[in-house]
Amino acid sequence: MVDIDDHACPCCRNDLHRIGEDVSEKLDLVRAQFRVLVVRRPKYACRACGEVVVQAPAPARLIEGGIPTEATVAQVLISKYADHLPLYRQAQIYKRQGIDLDRATLADWVGRAAWHLRPVHQWLLDHPKTGQLWAYARDDRPWQGDDPPGVAYVYAPDRKGERPMAHLDGFVGILQVDGYSGYRPLAAKNTVLLAFCWSHVRRRFYELAAAGPAPIASEALRRIAELYRIEEEIRGRTHEERHVAREERSRPITDSLAPWLHEQLSYISQKTKLAEAIRCALSRWDGLTRFIDDGRIEIDSNVVVQSDQLPSIARMRCLPVPTPEPNTGQPSRR
């Protein structure tokens, strides 16, 4: 409340009466505070008997003989696993507030809490729920684009083709994808051009060559490697320069690779893994060679593959805490 000091009219000195008020708001922060909860248990004795002492039992504690309440342990767990704040940093924060807690002590609390949470953990194991995390990434840096890179993650309970249709509703442009057939309906709308990924094609031939002598797969890998060498040289140039270089150097490679694959396919059994790898490449040839026509398109979708590997923030921020081996029957102290 902010009020005037004098409630008398500045003109005639009569009493002022309230006709309204202005209300405004400000966002304030009340820092988390520690408090000590004191539990008193009176003792009673009988004057007649002399030996009888009666006292209420002590309330159960989450950690037997420990000082934290359930709320304190819950805060440590949330900070560690939800906010990715390692225990040594939590100890530093608490020390600034005058609470000296060693990180080994905090680790013990975490371990004992995990022991109590075993029924919840078991229930989650008994009732698994799976889903798909779709990643849509953009990175224009390889061709000196002005827009910043970014990636969007969208959860879906399955990998049905209707998911990308819903996620990318209204999108117009080029979409670089793997060989998943669920993206094809997007191209059918004539608003999206699909560019396929050479890395996924290459992987099929690599697995065959790694398993043993495979001259056709090895030759395919050699030719694909030539495309990647060109990409390494032109990465970071403008999209016009990339387009010119690809037309001059990459186009001859792909123009000779397609008929060569057709020829090899006619020599081998159609039921082999090699035949599957060749058919996979040829059935997506227009999308695989689309990167040559547009310098903004990458040769593969590795930017999305890399973004799928979500960084473990907790692992990067945490330091290992040496702890003793747990006693038999006691919770693990990790």
Automatic annotation (TrEMBL):
Query: Pfam family example for this protein?
Result: zf-IS66
> Taking every annotated instance into account, which residue ranges of this chain make up the domain Transposase IS66 zinc-finger binding?
8-50
What residues does the Transposase IS66 central domain cover? 66-125, 129-304
The record ties this protein, via InterPro entries, to: Transposase-related, Transposase_IS66_central, Znf_dom_IS66
Question: Which superkingdom heads the taxonomic lineage of this protein's source?
Answer: Bacteria
Q: What is this protein called?
A: Transposase
> Native species of this protein?
Mesorhizobium qingshengii
